[in-house]
Amino acid sequence: MVKNKVLLLGATGETGGDILNGLVEDGSFDVACLVRPSSASSAAVQELSTRGHNIVVVDLKGSFEKLVEAVRGYDTIISAIGAPDQTQQLELVDAAAAAGTKRFVPCAFMTVCPPGGIIGSRDDKESVYQRIWYHHLPYTIIDIGFWHQASVPRLASGRIDSKLIVARNEIYADGNVKSMLSDKRDIGRWVARIVQDERTINKKVFAHSEFLSQNDIVRIVEEKSGEKLELTHLSTTELKARREKAWADYVADPTSISKRLLRSIDDYNVSKYIRQDDTPENAKYLGYLDARELYPDVKTIGFAEFMDDFLADKIKRPYEGKHIGLMKPTQK
Ligand SMILES: NC(=O)c1ccc[n+]([C@@H]2O[C@H](COP(=O)([O-])OP(=O)(O)OC[C@H]3O[C@@H](n4cnc5c(N)ncnc54)[C@H](OP(=O)(O)O)[C@@H]3O)[C@@H](O)[C@H]2O)c1
C-alpha cells in the first residue's frame, strides 16, 4: 500500500505528539517530523528518530529556498506549532504552495470561534488561513473544542494538585452553557481519518469527544472523586471586566508570558461560556463539517471515562517538565 507522506511540525509538543500517535496507530501514513535547528539534538527529537521517523531540520525563518526543498515531496503537511508562535507558519504556507503540497493542515486544534477580536490566538491563526487562501493552497482546518486534560477542577483534598495544569474551579454565569471537549487521546484518531478523506479538502471540520456544561463537569468530578468541590461563581459582568483588565495588562506588557496566558484564559472563558461560540450548532453556522457525522464509527473518550483514568493516575500531565507561565495548579 502506498502510504500518505506526512510532514508533521510539532511532534515533540502536546497536540503534535497526540497527532503523531494517531497517525501511527492508523497505519496509513509515513510520517516525517519537521524540527527547528535549535531543537535538533534534543532528547525529544532523538526519541522521534528512535521511533523510526525521518527528521527534517529546517528553520522556518531561514532561507526560503531551503524551506521549499525541505517540504517538497510530502502529500500532507500538518502543523501543531505552539499557541504563541502561530505566525511562524506564514513562511511554511508560502513554501508548501511553492512545493505543490496536496493538503496543508494549519495549526487550528482549538475551540470553535470566529475571528475578529474574541480570542487573540484565533486571530493569529486567521492570518495563516488567509495566507493559505491567498495561494489557493488545498487545506483542511480542524478544531477540537477544549481538552478534557485542561478542564479539571481542583479537589479540596489537594490529592490531584500535581496533575492539574490549571484548576478549573470557577463557574461562569449559571454554569449551564455547554461547550465542546476533547480527550487529547482522541485528537490524533480524528486527524488520521480527516486527512485521508477527499470530502474534507478545503473545508473546516470540528471533532469533539463530548458536549458538556461546567455543571455537568462538576457533577461528574464530584461523583467520581467522592469529594464536594469548592467553587467560585463569577457573573457575566465580572468575567467580562476581568477579561478587559487582562487585555489591558497584556497590551502594557506584551512580552510577558503570564499576562498573555491570563488574557488567553479569559478570552476562552468568554467565548465558550458567555458568547457560546464553541457549540456544534455554531460550528455548522460557520461552515464546519462535523467529524462525528463523517465518521460515525469513531469511538471517543467521554469526560467520565477520562476522569476514571485521571483519578487512576493513567493520564500524563500535559507540558510535564516544562515551565509554561501559569500552567501550574492554583493553590488554596
Ligand atoms: N484545544 C485545547 O484545549 C488546546 C490546548 C492547548 C493548545 N491548543 C492548541 O494546540 C496548538 C499546539 O499547542 P501545544 O500546546 O500542543 O504546543 P506545544 O506543546 O507548546 O508544542 C509546540 C511544538 O511546536 C514546535 N515548534 C515551535 N516552534 C517551532 C519552529 N519554529 N519550527 C519547528 N517546530 C516548532 C515545538 O518544538 P520544540 O519546542 O521541540 O522545538 C513543539 O513541538 C496551539 O495552536 C494551541 O492553540 C489547544
TrEMBL record:
InterPro entries: NAD(P)-bd_dom_sf (IPR036291), NmrA-like (IPR008030), NmrA-type/Isoflavone_red_sf (IPR050608). Coiled coil: none annotated. Residues 3-240 form the NmrA-like domain. SUPFAM superfamilies: NAD(P)-binding Rossmann-fold domains. It comes from the Eukaryota. Pfam families: NmrA (PF05368). This is Isoflavone reductase family protein. It comes from Lophiostoma macrostomum CBS 122681.
